Amino acid sequence: MDPLLQHIQRSFLGCTTFTVGDLVKSKEQQLTLTLRTSDGGKTVGTIEVNLVKMGELEDGEPCHITTDSQDQKCALVRECTASEGISGKDNLPSLNAGDVKNPICKLYRFPTSDNKWMRIREQMAETILSFHVPKELINLHIKEDMRRNQELKDLGELAPHWDNMRKSVIAHCDQMLSVYQDTLAELGKHTGSSFKSSCSKGEKTLEFIPINLHLQRMHVHSPRLKDALYDVITVGAPAAHFQGFKNGGLRKLLSKFEAERRNTGYQCIYYSPENTAKAKEVLSNINHLQPLISSHADLLLNSASQHSPDSLKNSLKMLSEKTELFVHAFKDQLVRSALLALYTARPGCVLKKPAVPRNSAEEGDDLKHQDHPSQVKRQDSIPHHSEYDEEEWDRVWANVGKSLNCVIAMVDKLLEKDDSGNVKDGEIDPSAADCKHAGSDWYEQLYPLVITLKDCMGEVVTRAKQSMAFVLLQELACGLPQCLMLTLRRDIVFSQALAGLVCGFIIKLHTGLHDQGFLQQLHTVGLLVQYEGLLSTYSEEAGMLEDMAVGISDLQKVMFKVVEAKSEDFLPIITGRREHYVIEVQLPAKMFELLPQEIKEGKLLRMYPVLFNVGINEQQTLAERFGDTTLQENINQENLELLKEYYNLFTEKMPPDCLPHFQEQNDLKGLLENLHQNIQAKKRKNVEIMWLAATICRKLNGVRFTCCKSAKDRTSMSVTLEQCSILRDEHQLHKDFFIRALDCMRSRQTQGALNDSDDPETGCLTDNKPTSRHFYPVALLLVSSHLLVVWLILSLALLLAKYQ
């Protein structure tokens, strides 16, 4: 083969899917070559190669390789379609799992400071998780809400006031349930692109879907340094765009709603958000543990009927563990106080004192009779009643433990008799008839005790479920319909954030399967997830930032679990409920074997999401000069504390040699201190905050996200700048080529002339191929301060003239 062809083929960095065929023609400084598959030799397109140095500019334009395949013109060094796929150890690791699709690729070659060449492969791909995760999540919301509505109906007979309140709450909940069901049905009909473009961010049927969720990967091959991968997940800010931001975002709306709920009338009881969350947790534990206990009780009886001592011991052990967890779930004053409140809501209950407003003098007298008044703020609605036996719940609750002790004592007695009988018989195995008789005897003695345990447990479950459902009734009744609308908004934002997190976790896990230090960090400390926000604090984007801050904070309640896949379907499985989700990531058997024992045994893996935001556009200039940047300052300060908390946990639990160099720990301390100083400085458009946070994240093996309104212009500028900075700082990019490399990555010429119909961000989508957002040309992000002042004066003059 011609040496030039060999050099071009080597530039594909080990790709084995395609081979470069014969030289077709040559004119001046351009070659046209065929592109064939490596197995069957099928020609899939041609490659035009400009014979200039990669990374250099020619006549002001970046050099590039143009691929023309199947009448699709994309100025890429190499294009990989979903049908052909790509392979090779440096390619996207989860392609085999089907999570990533439609990758597109570009190759660059830039000089290093010692006059060598580095090769860069830049890849971007969609992910089917953009739609899979929201659909799974909505399905869980529907099941959870249907279960809650049934629990409200099962409250039993209530006094007219409370019954009317329940009917109103159930009616509103049913309406909201239909919204989730309709959305899920519409998403099920969706075909076409596997990501949501920014022009669709206002569509109601797609409001749970993240905007422009893509994986951006840079693979660097240096002549003297180890190859390196740098991943960034790019996504539009998680926010409820369809609902709008007229009244702000979640951060402001939740605070306002909670303040209003505290001041509602006496018609409902106020429970703090902590107590409401506790009620949901108790209900979740009941629904989880009750069937498990019943199942283990049946296994115990089955072991007794078979006269199997070992099986009997194991079944008793499991039954004891689950029952203890069950009993422990009700060791809370909230259950006791809610039972009292529910008792007073029953028909025919005569109150010692009439209901009065919360701040009255009578409330102060009643509070003296309550054991823990802090648990329930509305004492007028749950007065102490002389006919209510507060010790009855303690007796019912304690009966479960007593019944379990009786079962344990009987099993011990039976096993002791069995052992003594074997000794007397000289360790001779009994006959089959004797075994059958003994098994029947064991079963008959255990059966009534197990039935008593189940009955006691059933009584506890009934009372606890009703009391906790009554707490949830108060939460909903005190805030209709705002409560349900806020829950919907929070679900929308969380769905978008979770889809990105699942994508980032899976990519990071696949990339780090051979890194034992990372895997140890993953199960010992958890995974750092750093979000870089580029939203302004002006107008609607301030509301988006408030939504985004709450959505990312809610990711702290997500846990991951890695399991071995039992089929060819490797899509993640989501279980749990609001405020507590577990994501099961499935790996093929060969990959699963590479994991530490702790992860293989199902240990839950924690996430530590942090958000740092720096507005960089012209709207941020307005906010800094004439508006308020307090929101951004507070978010950055709060998340700095979370980042410090993760670093302290990391240094406590991980050995010093877990980082590439021991000196890295001192570097991290300096970076954290520098980040702290930059946040405190409150400097305008301080992009140093973003660079420091990203560097700390990479040094701590974290997952990087970059977000702006639509994950296009600002995101593209940030990602390309970060990539070139990494090449300069970590891979010795020649200092004279920094700007050239940056221009080359950002230039639209590198991608070729695309029609509007080919661009998912400007027109209708004609195919499923994503267009790389960071290749777009972007106007200047910052406006000269002098021109800005002139523009503001003229705008104000025009506005005044208009209104006069």
Automatic annotation (TrEMBL):
<keyword id="KW-0812">Transmembrane</keyword>
<keyword id="KW-1133">Transmembrane helix</keyword>
<feature type="region of interest" description="Disordered">
    <location>
        <begin position="354"/>
        <end position="387"/>
    </location>
</feature>
<keyword id="KW-0472">Membrane</keyword>
<feature type="compositionally biased region" description="Basic and acidic residues">
    <location>
        <begin position="366"/>
        <end position="387"/>
    </location>
</feature>
<keyword id="KW-0443">Lipid metabolism</keyword>
<dbReference type="GO" id="GO:0016316">
    <property type="term" value="F:phosphatidylinositol-3,4-bisphosphate 4-phosphatase activity"/>
</dbReference>
<protein>
    <submittedName>
        <fullName>Inositol polyphosphate-4-phosphatase type II B</fullName>
    </submittedName>
</protein>
<feature type="transmembrane region" description="Helical">
    <location>
        <begin position="775"/>
        <end position="801"/>
    </location>
</feature>
<dbReference type="InterPro" id="IPR039034">
    <property type="entry name" value="INPP4"/>
</dbReference>
<keyword id="KW-0378">Hydrolase</keyword>
<dbReference type="GO" id="GO:0005737">
    <property type="term" value="C:cytoplasm"/>
</dbReference>
